[in-house]
# Entry
Amino acid sequence: MPVKRRLLLIDSSDSARTILFKEISNRAPELDIIACGNGKEAMTAVKRFEFEIITTGTNLPDTDGYQLVEAIRQTPKNKDTAIFVVSGDTKPRVIDSDMDDTDAVTAYFDKAEGHKSLVNFILNYLGTYNELPIKILYVDKSATSTAITTGILDKNNIEYIHFREAQEALECLQQDLAADANCSFDVMITDLMLTSKMGGFGLIQAVRNDLGLDYLSLPILLMTIEPAEDERTDFTAMFGAGTNDFITKPVDEDDLLARLRTLVSIKRQSEALNP
# Structure
C-alpha cells in the first residue's frame, strides 16, 4: 500500500485553517491534511505521523512559532520535513544558539499575499500540478520512438513541443529565455542518438553550459536503448553530461509518467523556494 501523503497546517485562526483546508482539499484530494490550532496539537501530530510539508504561523496560543519549529526538528519522523513559516515578518531569524534559521525553516511565506497564493506555493512544492500544466521539450529523430512517446504524452494531456534536431531545440530554448528569464519548459526529453552534428550528450551540455539551465531550472530525461547482455550503461557519462535521469527504449507508459512526475516535482519545488 502506498504511503499517504500528508500536510500539516498550524494556525491559530479557525477561519484561516478552514479556508486553507477546503482549498487544498479541492485541488489535491489525494492529500491527507491535518489542521491544528496550537502547538500542543501540532506536536501530537508530528510525533505520530510523517509529513511532507508543515506550515505554521508565528503567534500560537500556547507557544512561539519558532520554538515549535525547533521542537519539530527534534522529532524522528519530521526532522527533515519541509517547514514553511507564514508570517508578516519574512526576515530570517536565529532559532537558538544551536540551530539557525537556514537549518530550521525551509521557506518563508508573506501572509499578506493571501491564502490562494499560499495554496499555490504549497502545491507547487509538493508537485501537485493539477492546475499547472506540464510542458515538455521533446527531441528525437526516430519516427518510431517519437510515435510511441508522443502517443503517451497525448493520451495523458501533456503539452509538448517536438524537434528532430538538437539545434532546433536549442534555438527554441533561447527564444523561450529571451521572452522570460525563467525557462517555461518543465522537462526536456532527449534521445541519446540524434544527428551527427550534435547528439544527446552535446545537446545536454549546451543546455547546461551555454544556456546556463541547471538541474533544477530544466530537468532532463535522457532516452537510451536497452544495453545488450555484454554491454554496460555508462552512468558516469550520462550524469556527468548533466542528465537528471534516463529511461530505456521502447518506453513504458507507466515508467515514463513516473519519471516525469518526479522531474516536474523537482522543478516545482525549486520554483516554490526561489520565486
Notes: The CA atoms of residues 124 and 132 lie 8 Å apart.
